[in-house]
Design a protein that fits this description.
It comes from Denticeps clupeoides. One of its GO terms (cellular component) is plasma membrane. One of its GO terms (biological process) is anatomical structure morphogenesis. One of its GO terms (molecular function) is calcium ion binding. By secondary structure, the protein is mostly beta strands. 10% of the residues lie in helices and 37% in strands. The protein has nine helices and 65 strands. The strands form 21 sheets. A four-stranded mixed sheet has the order 1-7-6-3. Strands 9-16-15-12 form a four-stranded mixed sheet, with no helix packed on it. A four-stranded mixed sheet has the order 18-25-24-21, with no helix packed on it. The longest helix is centred in the C-terminal third of the chain and has 32 residues.
Length: 1036
């Protein structure tokens, strides 16, 4: 080998090594149908691009995809990091590789340029598109008809038209089965050498057309995806008469070549088949199977009689290089024969090469602007030439048509880099129009050309000019020191030394920023913190190297981008809220305030509740906490949980705060009496008990807390003389006065307990029975008194009309003696008058007997004792008086008008006539007075009572009598002229009962005489069937 040959070999070897260094290939695998922003790989890491620290870069490392014009990118490459992600454009393997016949692998290719020129590399990336199961297998028809002769032998097989699935591999067709099958048929699957699966129907029992001529089944096809996809079709088998032999192809597989420019009706091939039958059973009919694609059916036709296949439409090898035809030969029987014809479309040089120019240097109005001092091998564009033809017809060479300082350097197959091959001189040539020619190797040659326009920038006596008056930059905070921000460049129309530009920062530049004097690379030497300083503005000066330097400046606006380096911050590490226990469902408990020093999405904080068992909800944005439950302080007085704050950064930051919700008590529980346990119980108070002694006690509890559970006791009825008193706090009932004879008997105290709750107090009422006597000698009598007590309205005292048996008997004896004495005296007196006086005087005496006046009833049992000492007078007579009761008609139409007469006996006692002092007696009594007929007596022959209704007062809220157990329930009764309780006089009662007594009201009965002697009195009347108080007006 001579020296020239060795030199040539070395040059070729060196060129190959250099090309390997800066031309690389990288393969990735990605599944189809991936969503946007799915990470595929990292070019910088995968290519092991380690920057040499000794090489000064003119610009930061950049990865720039080189796309074809009009291409829809399926992936994107991050310019700074080299990370590869999917885009919003859908990757569809079936669409991307639809024209590849029998190809299992589908690829998508792009080229990426690694810049700047100091470390330039061109990387070809091939993405292997993995198939996913996104298509279900489908039959060509929803109904498949097969005809089988009735004398078919058992285990005979008949092909069933296959289904089609555009997916490949395991996602393609894997299984066929019969659904709703019959015992006469089975199904088997045959796999072809190409991997296709063909279903075959197997005859499992003898067929008899006369017995059953049609079988209907369902066939199911299923792929192997996860989850599998499937479809079904109706399989209808018709049993036909006997046709013993089916056609047999001479060649079951035929492969032919047809040029793609073959005219229509060109013969492709002719199939031959024979049939051993005779007559009509030997007549063969050729047809295409429905398993071939619709595109193939459009391009070819077959003669049904001769089996000749011809071209039906023009062929195009570049669209479909191979066609697969499945031909059926049928003699009218049920089982046609099958043959496969592979048609290879051969190439002819019918396609002109195409040139695709992808610019590495950005274009300005369709022209590459290149400085005259651009270094050698400056990469300008990636030229890709393609030819759809095959073999020599598709082999393309590429070159420039004349001598220019640029060259095309091959990198990959049919790809070239356009780069500078010689120094550029603005003064020599200002612009270049480079004609790139691509020519194939066909016969004859076909070629095409493309133009690349390059303008040379001169360096001359002009001030440096920045391409834009203001540079806007952004950088993430927490950057590494010495991070390069941007390469600031200015242009100068001069040449030579006068065009050399140096850069420096203006006097307003803040500390920590630097700029490279030659390259204009702006860098920052310290970490930036957006929370401290978000925006910077300063000037950069560009100065040329002329003898009289000229300069210009540009304003740099730098925005520090936020990084999620701050966790959400709660205003308090722990929150305590106080809510009333009657807070409604979804009412507002409180507000959690959280801030984040970051900005944008990094400052968008979302709140959520942890370990609260769904008892509370929180507005993720506003922080308002609301209950998902109703509170009951008596069940649970506080709730504690954690609130989580998460920002919306790519790497979310999290903070936690403790929340305690204290349930404040609400006065929602009434006091409940514990002692006495029953309204029927009683305590014995001996008459020898000294005043101030505790005779019994009451005790109540309240489930509330605080002031809502503070209780106070009071006696609201049953102690008219103040004989008993109760301690407001302890509930001890003490004797206040010395017991006298009039105090003997059963006393009923109405005890009220109320809490001190706000805003409204709640209370309960209980009955305390005290039996004042030395001993309990007659238990039956006490039980009777208790029964009467329970029937007596609360607004009346138990002892108003009753006295103990001992006192009652004593008074009756005294009255009887006095009455007898007065009767004897009266008889003697009347007899003397009759005998001694004349008739006129007798008349006067008779007239005086009819005169009389009203007297008042005995107020207390003690008054009875006083009357014994007075001189007794015999009664003069008994008169029957009539009381007229009237009720005015109320506005409510539901109330009936009461208008009737009540007859009441009145006993006149001479001893009381003229003794009643009307001036000291109230003219109006409480509506709870006893029976008026027993308390008001008059000597007037015809007194009149006018009874009118009184407007009831609404009962106060929460004032009820405690409901004790059934056997201890306090029951109120009423007599014929009173109600259980009066709503106008007793504010502590909310229930009423109907009176048992009543009177008839046939109409208004007028008395014989109406005399108004005294001011009107008022009482209470309860009519039959009514449940309301009536105010009684008594005109005397």
């Amino acid at each position: 080998m001579d020296l020239a040959s060795e030199t040539l070999v070395l040059v070729i070897l060196f060129t190959s090594l250099a090309m390997v260094c800066w031309a690389q290939e990288k393969d990735y695998t990605v599944k189809e149908e991936q969503p946007e922003n799915v990470r595929i790989g990292n070019l910088r890491k995968d290519l092991d691009l380690a920057l040499d620290p000794d090489i000064r870069l003119s610009a930061p490392l950049q990865f720039k995809p080189v796309y074809k014009t009009g291409d829809v990118p399926l992936v994107r490459v991050e310019a700074n990091t080299g990370e590869i992600f999917t885009t919003a454009n859908r990757i569809d393997r079936e669409k991307l590789c639809s024209g590849v016949f029998g190809e299992r692998n589908c690829y998508y290719e792009i080229e990426v340029a690694v810049l700047p020129d100091e470390i330039f590399r061109l990387v070809k990336i091939r993405f292997l598109i993995e198939d996913v199961n996104d298509n279900a297998p489908l039959f060509q028809s929803t109904v498949i008809n097969i005809s089988i002769p009735e004398n078919t032998a058992i285990n005979s097989r008949y092909p069933v038209p296959s289904a089609f699935d555009p997916d490949v591999g395991i996602n393609g067709i894997q299984h066929y089965e019969l659904v709703k099958s019959v015992s006469e048929f089975g199904l088997d699957i045959i796999e072809t050498p190409e991997g296709d699966k063909w279903p075959q129907l197997i005859v499992q029992q003898s067929l008899d057309r006369e017995t059953k001529d049609t079988f209907v089944m369902k066939i199911k096809v299923e792929d192997g995806g996860t989850p599998p996809k499937s479809s079904t079709a109706i399989l209808q088998v018709t049993v036909s008469d006997v046709n013993d032999n089916r056609p047999i192809f001479k060649d079951s597989e035929v492969e032919v070549n047809v040029p793609e420019n073959a005219p229509m009706s060109t013969s492709v091939t002719q199939l031959h088949a024979t049939d051993a039958d005779l007559g009509s059973n030997a007549q063969i009919h050729f047809s295409f199977s429905n398993q071939i694609s619709p595109s193939t059916k459009r391009h070819f036709a077959i003669d049904s009689s001769t089996g000749l296949i011809t071209v039906k439409q023009p062929l195009d090898r570049e669209v479909t290089p191979v066609h697969k035809l499945i031909v059926l030969a049928s003699d009218g029987g049920t089982t046609p024969s099958r043959a496969t014809v592979i048609v290879n479309v051969t190439d002819i040089n019918d396609n002109v090469p195409s040139i695709d120019t992808r610019y590495i240097i950005n274009l300005v109005n369709g022209t590459v602007l290149l400085s005259e001092n651009a270094p050698l091998n400056t990469k300008i564009a990636l030229i890709t030439v393609t030819d759809k033809d095959a073999d020599l017809n598709g082999k393309v060479t590429c070159y420039t048509d004349h001598d220019v300082p640029f060259s095309l350097k091959p990198v990959f197959n049919n790809q070239f880099l356009l780069e500078t091959a010689a120094p550029l001189d603005y003064e020599t040539t200002r612009e270049y129009a480079i004609r790139i020619v691509a020519s194939d190797s066909g016969n004859p040659h076909l070629n095409t050309s493309a133009m690349v326009l390059i303008k040379i920038k001169d360096e001359n006596d002009n001030s440096p000019i920045f391409s834009q008056p203001e540079i806007q930059l952004s950088i993430p905070e927490n950057n590494d020191p010495a991070t390069q921000l941007i390469k600031i460049s200015a242009t100068d129309a001069d040449s030579g030394q006068n065009a050399e530009i140096t850069y420096c920062l203006g006097p307003d530049a803040p500390d920590g920023f630097n700029i490279d004097r030659r390259t204009g690379i702006l860098s920052v030497s310290r970490r930036l913190d957006r929370e401290k300083h978000e925006k910077y503005m300063f000037t950069v000066i560009a100065k040329d190297n002329g003898s009289t330097p000229l300069q210009s400046n540009v304003t740099v606006r730098l925005i520090v981008q936020d990084m999620n380096d701050n966790s959400p911050s709660f205003t308090h590490p722990e929150y305590n809220f106080y809510v009333p226990e009657n807070l409604p469902l979804y009412g507002t408990v409180g507000l959690i305030t959280v801030t984040d020093a970051d900005a944008g999405e990094n400052a968008v904080v979302s709140l959520s509740i942890l370990n609260a068992k769904d008892n509370f909800i929180i507005d993720s944005k506003s922080g308002v906490i609301k209950p998902n439950i109703t509170f009951d302080r008596e069940q649970q007085s506080s709730y504690t949980f954690m609130v989580k704050a998460v920002d919306a950064g790519q790497k979310p930051a999290t903070s936690y705060a403790k929340v305690t919700i204290n349930v404040v008590d609400v006065n929602d529980n009434r006091p409940v009496f514990v002692i006495p346990a029953s309204n029927y119980s009683y305590d014995l108070v001996q008459s020898s008990t000294s005043p101030g002694s505790v005779v019994t006690r009451v005790f109540a509890i309240d489930n509330d807390t605080g002031m809502n559970a503070e209780l106070q006791y009071s006696i609201i009825g049953g102690s008219p003389r103040g004989l008993f008193a109760i301690d407001r706090t302890s509930g001890n009932i003490t004797l206040q006065e010395k017991i006298v004879a009039a105090d003997l008997g059963l006393h009923r105290l109405v005890v009220k307990v109320r809490d001190l709750g706000q805003p409204e107090s709640l209370h309960a009422v209980a009955l305390v029975h005290l039996f004042v006597n030395d001993t309990v000698s007659n238990a039956t009598y006490i039980q009777e008194q208790l029964r009467k007590s329970m029937e007596t309205p609360l607004d009346r005292n138990v002892g108003d009309s009753d006295i103990i048996p001992q006192a009652n008997g004593y008074i009756i004896v005294v009255i009887a003696i006095i009455a007898g004495t007065m009767t004897v005296i009266l008889v003697i007196f009347v007899t003397a008058l009759v005998r001694c006086r004349q008739t006129p005087r007798h008349k006067v005496v008779q007239k005086s007997k009819q005169s009389g006046e009203w007297v008042s009833p005995n107020q207390e049992n003690r008054q009875i004792k006083k009357k014994k000492k007075k001189k007794k007078r015999s009664p003069k007579s008994l008169l029957l008086n009539f009381v007229t009761i009237e009720e005015s008609k109320p506005d409510d139409l539901a109330h009936e008008h009461i208008n009737g007469t009540l007859d009441l006996p009145v006993e006149l006692e001479e001893q009381t006539m003229g003794k009643y002092n009307w001036a000291t007696t109230p003219t109006t009594f409480k509506p709870d007075s006893p029976d008026l007929a027993k308390h008001y007596k008059s000597a007037s022959p015809q007194p009149t009572f006018q009874i009118k209704p009184e407007t009831p007062v609404a009962p106060k809220k929460h004032h009820v009598i405690q409901e004790l157990p059934l056997d201890n329930t306090f029951v109120v009764g009423c007599d014929s002229l009173s109600k259980c309780s009066s709503s106008s006089s007793d504010p502590y009662s909310v229930s009423e009962c109907s009176c048992q007594g009543g009177f008839k009201t046939p109409g208004q009965i007028h008395t014989r005489q109406e005399t108004a002697l005294k001011p009107p009195l008022y009482g209470t009347l309860c009519g039959p069937g009514t449940a309301r108080s009536q105010r009684i007006k008594i005109n005397l």
